[in-house]
Structure formats: C-alpha cells, structure tokens
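Bug report (template v2)

What were you trying to do?
Predict the complex of my protein with iron/sulfur cluster.

What happened?
Run completed; filing so the output is reviewed.

Input:
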Amino acid sequence: MTDILAILHTAETTHSLTKAEIVLLLATNEYDQQLFMAADRVRSKYVGDEVHLRGLIEFSNVCQQNCFYCGLRKDNAKVKRYWLTPDTIIELASKAQGYGYKTVVLQSGESDVYTIADMHYIISKVKALGLAITLSVGEKTKAEYEVYKKAGADRYLLRIETTDREIYKKLHPGMELENRIRCLTDLKELGYEVGTGCLVGLPGQTIESLADDILFFKAIDADMIGLGPFIPNSDTPLAGELGGTFVTSLKVMAITRLLLPDANIPATTAMETLNKEGRITALNSGANVVMPNVTEGEYRQMYLLYPGKICINDTPAHCRGCITGKIMAIGRQVSNKYGYRVKNKQ
Ligand code: 5AD
Ligand code: SF4
Ligand code: FES
C-alpha cells in the first residue's frame, strides 16, 4: 500500500492527481493521518497560519427551490419564513464589523423577496462600511450578478452540490446542472472570487463521483471551496437516508487542499455538527477559513438547513470569542486582513 504514500507525495509536490488516484485515496482509511498532515503542510506553505473569519448573515430563509436535502425547501411548510429589512441587514453588517470581521457573507434562500434595487442598496451600504462582501443568494442571471458586482460585491458562493448528473437531477427538481455551471462561469467572468463545493454522502453518491467533484473544483479554478457532510433533515424527502460521515468529508476537503493549494477553504459548520472538534480538526487538515454566525436572536433557529446546527442559541459576540479562543489554542492567529485569494505563481 505504499503506492498511497506515493500518490500523497505526488499530490503534495505537483498539486495534481488523476481521478483513479483520488479514488484510491478515498477508498482506503489506512493513510488518513498522512493525508491530513500533507494537507496541513500545503495549507501552511501556501496560505499561511492565519485564519480568515467571515461573519455570516442569514438574512432570509425564504426559498423557491426544493432541494431534497434542505430544510429551507419551498415545500417544507414547518418553516416559519422571515426576511430582514435592508436596514436591519446593514445594521447586522455594521455590528459584525464592530466584532472585528473584515468580510460579511450575505446568505439567503433563493427568492425574489428582495428586488435588484433592494440588493443594490444593501450591497452598496455594506460596502461603504469598508467590509468585503460575499454573496450567497443562489442562481441569478448574469445581468443581476453584474449589478451586484458593480454595487460592491467581491465574492460569491454557489456550491455545485454534486457534479453527478443523475444525482443532481434527482435532488434538484426544476434545476439543471448546466445552469449552475453557467452561473459559476458568469461569476468568474464578472471578476468575482468564486466559491463552490459539494455535499458529501448524498444518496447514491460514490467515491468516483466525489473524485469528479474535486476535479471540477480544480478545473474551474475555484477561489473558495466549502464542503461538508450531508446531514438528513426529517422534514425533507431524504429524512430516512444515512447522510455523510465526518471522516469522508474531511478527506474530500484535505484532497481539495492538495489540489488547490492557494484556495480559501472553510472549516464548515456541518463538520462541527457531526464532531464537536470538527472545525478545529478541519483547520488542522487543510482549512484556513471559518464563517461564524452573526445572525441575531430567533432567526438563527429559523435558518435550519439540517438538524443539530451549531450555535443556534448563541450570540454573535459569544461565537466570535469562542472561535478566536479555539484558533489561538492550536497556535494559529485570526487574520486582520480581508483574506482575498492570493494566487501562487507556479
Ligand atoms: N446537510 C448539510 N448541508 C446542507 N445544505 C443544505 N442542506 C443541507 C443538509 N441537509 C448546504 C448546501 C447549501 C448550503 C447553504 O447548505 O450545500 O449549498
Ligand atoms: Fe433553497 Fe439553497 Fe436550501 Fe436549495 S439548498 S432549498 S436553494 S436554501
Ligand atoms: Fe458559536 Fe463556538 S462558534 S458557540
């Protein structure tokens, strides 16, 4: 099995692997520690020891899509829907800045609750605070993405979720994988830093399919890659499924780090939901970003993508202190920079 060590060596030195090699890494658990350590070295070498914090504002849980895995899907009548006013969103961003965040992530379900003019207003006001802005509001037209970019948005998160055509079709009624790829291409062309990622452990997903996901991140040269386990939600059609595991998610993340050495990779909330040291373990296995929640009050409980989501009863101030403590405890520092991707000239 030393061929696994040879594959790890190739990955660490060339940042390139074949699909067959990725499948081999995913198929054995014997060399997981070596994989995580290699990803940690590559992280340290390319993006350093600083951890970038992004303050996450979940500004509306209204969604017109029906993704089978997600608690916010349109057909989930149990969800009490909310949408914050533009001025409330701007105020949350301002408070996030007060806690020392340099970036806010404005995330919502996919909907038309906010007009393009509303979004323009929110983005330009938040930008005027001196914050970097990441949007995560779903599939839109290129024209809309362009308005947001001109208003001051810097980055955009849109996970591909899975590159497996069959699975994508089954889990996303009324949506097309092609359109999602079109969105990512448009965003790149408009000059956004583009984030994508996948769910690990979807029904029917194989390690071959996960290898394709990783190669997709590389092929589009993603600036950010967020991924985590699929956690079954009892109020969705996937209630009875098994879901993904922490270790497989961590492995997919570590391999992603090896192949995209200078990307920004978050230690995701879903990982911590399955393992109480999940984010720290991820930070020690290739991740360099954390996205603490800065949504306030009852709205945290109402943005329930999956059960067991962490921090739903905590305050923004508490989470900020909590995560800073954890980061310092592993000898890393919280960055005071914007944390744009710095492309390595190799
Ligand atoms: N388990 C884990 N992650 C989920 N997401 C949605 N539903 C779930 C779930 N049940 C993720 C999707 C989406 C992101 C905002 O949340 O990947 O892109
Ligand atoms: Fe809506 Fe996003 Fe959930 Fe899909 S994953 S149902 S688009 S909030
Ligand atoms: Fe929210 Fe630790 S980050 S309680």
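What did the reviewer find?
The first helix runs from residue 2 to 14. The first strand starts at residue 50 and ends at 60.
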